[in-house]
Design goal:
165 residues
């Protein structure tokens, strides 16, 4: 064997090593991307569950949120209730905005938004929620505001509508 053959063999082995390394790095990146997507999805679900838990744990807040969503005439609420309602609506919209933006930007599956969208629309389409977001839309991402402006009629009923049966 001469030096030229040894050199050619070394180049082939080097190329194989580079290809192997690229395949390994590619696999690692896919696994990291999948883990990040799962983490973002879990975080979004945690936020939704936490929001729901807050309402469930505080019957007064739950009732206030339901009543506030149902009417755009907030004169029947005390100043303290209106203040609390504004903060509740802010949290409500921000939780769902976060889910929407993660789906829109591809950091979680679109299905995560689609699976929760009807719950969101059930409340966001109500007069009180509409009043809130039209007055405070500058606090929301413009892409999410566009969803609000073009929202369809929800297929689900709100908790208040279900309990009125």
């Amino acid at each position: 064997m001469n030096w030229e053959a040894i050199g050619a063999l070394g180049e082939v082995l080097g190329a194989v090593a580079v290809v192997g390394t690229l395949l390994y790095v590619s696999r690692q990146l896919r696994e990291q991307s999948r883990a990040l997507t799962t983490s973002v999805r879990d975080s979004a679900f945690h936020q939704l569950a936490e929001w729901n838990y807050q309402l469930m744990a505080d019957a007064e807040l739950s009732h206030l949120f339901q009543q506030g969503a149902a009417t755009d005439d907030w004169d029947d609420f005390s100043p303290e209730e209106r203040s609390r309602l504004i903060h509740a609506f802010y949290s409500f919209f921000k939780v769902f905005e976060n889910v929407y933006l993660h789906a829109e930007e591809g950091s979680t599956h679109q299905a995560v938004w689609e699976q929760n969208c009807q719950v969101f629309l059930a409340y966001a389409s109500k007069p009180g929620c509409r009043r809130y977001w039209t007055q405070r839309e500058t606090t929301l991402d413009p892409r999410f505001v566009e969803v609000l402006r073009t929202m369809e009629s929800p297929k689900l009923k709100t908790g208040l509508e279900i309990s009125e049966r």
